[in-house]
Every structure is written in C-alpha cells, then in structure tokens.
Amino acid sequence: MLKQLELFTSSHGAILLVAFCSGEIAKQFGLSVAKEMTQVSGRVLARPDLKLRDASGQISKFSIQNNDCQWNLLKNKLLEGQNLQNWGILDFSAQPSHYKQQRLNTGDFIHYIVKRCRNLGMQMNDQPLFVLDSRMAVLWDYDKLLGELNKAIHAAGAQQLQLLFCPMSDRHQGYKLLKLISETQLGLMTQCLLSHNANKMQDQYFANLALKMNGKLGGTNVELSDTLPLVKDSPFMFIGADVNHPSSGNTTSPSIAAVVANLDCPGISRYATRIRAQPHRTERIMELMELGEMCRELVEDYARVNGVKPQKIVYFRDGVSDGQFDMVLNEELRDLVAAIKSDGYSPTITVVVAKKRHRTRLFPKSEREPCTRNGNVPPGTVVDTAIIDPMAFDFYLISHNGILGTSKPTHYYGLQDDHGFMSDELQKLIYNLCFTFARCTKPVSLAPPVYYADLAAYRGRLYYESMLEASSSASSFPAPTSSGQGGFPKLHKKVEKRMFYL
C-alpha cells in the first residue's frame, strides 16, 4: 500500500540564485526569487518481500519490518550458497609495508571465515589447498606478482582454484595490478582483504565478506519473492551501461565503457560483463556502434544459460546529461537493435536513464511525515509531480536509507517504452530491483544494472592505470595506447560471466 507524504524540495542552484538576485539590479529587471522551498507531494512505495532460506535451510518469504529497510542474516541463510572446495591464501601481509602494520592471523581467519560461510549456507572446505607467504613489495612489480600468482595456481595442483584470498597490510596501489593480472590474464577469482580488519574477527565483517564471495562464485544471496511488473510472463534481460571518464586534468587517457546484463531469469542475481576502452572523453559507447559486440555477446550468453533469448529488454543507461538523450536513442539504441535483431528475433526494449548529478533534495514537511532516524525521507519515496519535466516520463526516487547527510534521489527518465509501463509499474520495478544488490543487506541508491556497470567501468579504469604503471617500470608489460581499444585487455573467459567487481 502506498503512503502519501508532503515534502519540501530544494536545489543548491536555487539557493545561489536567491543570493544573487536579491539586490537593486535584480529589482530593476523585475526579478524576484522566493526564499521558501517548493512544496511537493510524494509517495512511499511498499517494500518488497524477499526470498531467503530460514535457519533450517528451507526457502521462505522474508518481510522487512525495519523502517530503514535493512535486514540481517543472523537467523537466515543465503538463497543459493555456492560450494567452495578449492581455495587458497596468498598472504601479502606476511611481510608488511611498515613494521607497525599487522600480518593476517591465518589460523583464526580460516576458522572464522569457514564458520561464517557455513552458517550462511555456503559449503566451504574447512582447510585451504595451500597457504603461501608473500610480501607487500611484490605488488609493485608486474613480473614478480605474475610469478607469485602462477605459484599459487601451481600450488593447487590438479584442482581448479575457485577463489584466492589475498590479504594485504594496507590499501596498496598494487591492488590494481593484482586485479589486472588475475582477471584478464589468468582467469583467477580473487578476494582481497585488509589484515587489520580481518584480525578483529568481527561477525559482521565476515558476513559481508561471504556476500561478496558468494556473488563472485555465481551464487544467489537474495531474490525478490514477487514477480516484477510487465516482465514476468516472458524471458527478460536487464542491461546496464556506463562510461568512466578520466579526471579533468587528464587529456590523453581513454574513457572506459562497461556493459552488464543478467544471465539468470527470473532470479536477476547473476550478471555477465564486458569492458572496452574508447577514445578520450567519448560518452557514446562506441562498441555498440561496431556491430553491438558487447550486447550481442551478452544476449548470446543469456541464451546459452536459459536456452532462449530474452523477449523483453530493459536498457539502463547511466552518466548522460539531458542534452545526450537523443544520442542514447538515435545512436546507441539504434546500434544495439541492429546488432541483436536477427532471423526473426526482435525483442521489445525499454530505455531508462538514471541521473545522480543534480542538486535536488527532498525533506519531510513536518515531524508528522514519515522519516528515518536522522530525519531523511524514508526509502521508497518517489516524486513524479511538480518538479519533473511535464513533457517527459521521469521521476525522482530515493530507494536507500541515507545514513549521513541528506539523501540524494536518483532522477530516472524513461526515454523509450516498448513494454507500456505505467508510472507506478516502472517505479516499482526499479525500487524492487534496488533490494537485489549482491554485496549488502539493504536497498541501494541506484538500480543494480547501472550500479554494477559503474563498478565494472571503474575496474576497467584500474586496469588502464596499472597498465601504464607496469609499462613505465622495468617489466615485460606492453604499454597501452591512449586512443581507445588498442592494447586494452579483454576479460578472461573464466571471469567475464562472473561478478568479479563485487
């Protein structure tokens, strides 16, 4: 049931306008700006029921009772815990960067991580295949790090290494190089952790670690109990796309495009990924133009898993401004459709843009209105009147619980809708999706398809930075180019269907 609430909305830009338009010059031009915030009406969407396993291991419906929409796993288990039998530890913290830093307490770590994973429903071997000591200094050197990772693979023997724990004594820059080698050259799934955090042996820390591990291994942490509106009757796919640009002072590095798509239906918990480099600060995803390589590959991956291609596609796009909407519709969407339509296959497509770069904020009008403990509007608050574009299909949605400061809504635009979504249906679909994010037990602020695409694009940025650093040092790593895909590595086949960026 929807709850109605009265809100105030403000924009930092409007506040500045009040400051600059309050003098004599403004009066001469007949300008005046109200100092009061705009009052709008909003609604609080009903939170969805979730699907988890109870303490006995049976699948059950879980209703969230907390107003902040968070849930815990103290009396519940993961919906589909993976079997982790072949794992190892490559301990870089064994020789820390500084004498005051801690090395991992390996024995206690093994005991607690195995215990927590088993309590959550993951079947984990109680002993690793190996524990190898290394040193933090290795992370600076491409050739030495590659040798250490190969040593770990050989230590597993005939067993296929499923996951490699990589404890570190600090947040080392070599993390980027480790991920580059593991995910593009060796096809090795790694789980990095800080030794001083792990040594505290806190239950919540190991629970969060288990969520990431299970997601990387292809498991399902949680699913929605109810079906999603309008996509429930046929195979569907959610595609998320984002482009990561270099910093403002960088004039040569390429932009990194990432596209993700769910492989499981109707579970929507496992996503495959493609990452490409493209010319400097190019927002349009160029690979979509080049025969739609990434999206076509993702549709084919989906078909191999489900035995059928998706009949309905919802394409989420992040990071574009209002002036680039035509580019998304007339160029990206056109190229995507041209690439995936073939031999009578023609899925319906809905295009949704998610925007976080705006200055709109929402506040409860009075203490009588629903709010969180720190005074923010509650998760599920949606505004689709007064402050929206009257000529567009858009709305503001706060899907998360803001812990610090004022919650920032996400502004969603429906640019094309082949599925015929009503406003309530699209809002419910996006809000419910926000509960399925793999690495936490609460709804997130952005629809997971674009959230994952953002994480994947950032991981691609780390690849490029580590390639530059490795090629500039005395190593055998080739230098990347700055003009796009040349020299930029593709994900290893063993990794591209996994959520390695969690």
From TrEMBL:
Entry coiled-coil feature ranges: none
* UniProt cross-references to CDD domains, sorted A to Z: Piwi_ago-like (cd04657)
Concerning SMART domains, the annotation shows: Piwi (SM00950)
Boundaries of every Piwi domain copy:
163-465
Transmembrane ranges, per UniProt, are none
Q: InterPro entries attached here?
A: Argonaute_Mid_dom, Piwi, Piwi_ago-like, RNaseH-like_sf, RNaseH_sf
Q: Which GO terms describe its molecular function?
A: nucleic acid binding
Q: What is this protein called?
A: Protein argonaute 2-like
Originating species: Phoenix dactylifera
Q: Which gene encodes it?
A: LOC120112747
